[in-house]
Amino acid sequence: MKIARITVTVIGLIFLLIPLIVTIGASFTTAGYPTFPPKGFSLQWYEKILDRPEYMVAFFNSVKFAFLASFFSVLLGTIAGLALAKYDLPGKTYIVSLLTSPLTIPHLVLGAALLIYFTPMLLAGKPIGFIIAHIVICVPYAIRFVLTGLSGFDYTLERAAMVLGANPFVVFWKITLPIIRPAILSGAMFAFLISFDNVTVSLFMVSTDMRTLPLELFFHMQDSYDPMVASVSSIVIFISVIFILIFEKIYGIGKLFGGSN
Q1: d(CA 252, CA 261)
Q2: Hey, what long-range contacts does 32-37 have (CB within 8 A, 24 or more apart)?
Q3: For residue range 116-165, what is the model confidence (pLDDT) as tens digits?
Q4: What's CA 125's distance to the chain center, in Å?
Q5: Helix (H, G, I), strand (E, B) or coil at 207
Q6: pTM summary value
Q7: Distance CA 43, CA 69 (A)
Q8: Measured between alpha carbons, how far is 172 from 169 in angstroms, rounded to an integer?
Q9: Which of 62, 171, 183, 196 qualifies as a FRET site for 239, CA 20 to 30 Å off?
């Protein structure tokens, strides 16, 4: 039984790592098209990125929009999660379903609906409209994580603190926040990744001078299919790995998702 579990785990890891290995390997090819195993070894496709400054602009756009979407999604999601978890609101089930509905609505439909809604408000193709659209698709993740973090919360701790004279802000800052911090950080990480990687909704909200990295890659592949796409993707993979290692060193990924560190 133990051998079977180990085998399934190894197969699962290989299945998840194969796309990354193929992408990184293809970025070092000397051929003019992506191929794996790579034909020869060359850094030419990484060097050519320096001749395409639009990729750097798109990367920083992605980081900027993802950070803002993550910040406001966590802020709104935490407030909504606390209200839904602590208070017996009328129609709570329907409210939760409404707030988390973007998880079930196809992004193609959601993007078209947001475009139709934002156009009369002159928000389509504007940074504020882009950020709001990403907040819409990211907030449900923050709400879900906060609700999960509060599922086993002992509210007698808050009442005890209030009896001892703590005001609501101190109770939240000293009691509630430290307990749900892993849930909030998990929601923030997921919101950032969902926003950074989004293509479908972004296609409806983007303008010619406001492209993100996934959209830049998408438009590049429409014009040409060369290993530069693999090299840009590999750089994002390397940055993500470094980010995860730093986060693991400072905080701990296991602790972030509620496990033991």
Answers
A1: 6
A2: 32/226, 32/227, 33/225, 33/226, 33/227, 34/225, 34/226, 34/227, 34/229, 34/230
A3: 888 888 777 788 888 888 898 888 888 888 888 777 777 777 778 787 77
A4: 21
A5: strand
A6: 0.78
A7: 34
A8: 5
A9: 183
- b/e map of 164-186 (b: 16 or more CB within 10 Å)? eebeeeebeeebbeeebebbbbb
Q: d(Cα 28, Cα 38) in Å, to the nearest integer?
A: 6
Instruction: Tell the residue number behind the tokens 């070092």, with chain if given.
Output: 28
Q: Could you tell me which of 89, 6, 20, 63 has the C-alpha nearest to residue 192?
A: 63
Which amino acid type is present at position 178?
A: P
Q: How many CB atoms lie within 10 A of CB 73?
A: 27
Phi/psi at 210 (nearest 5 deg)? Answer: -145, 65
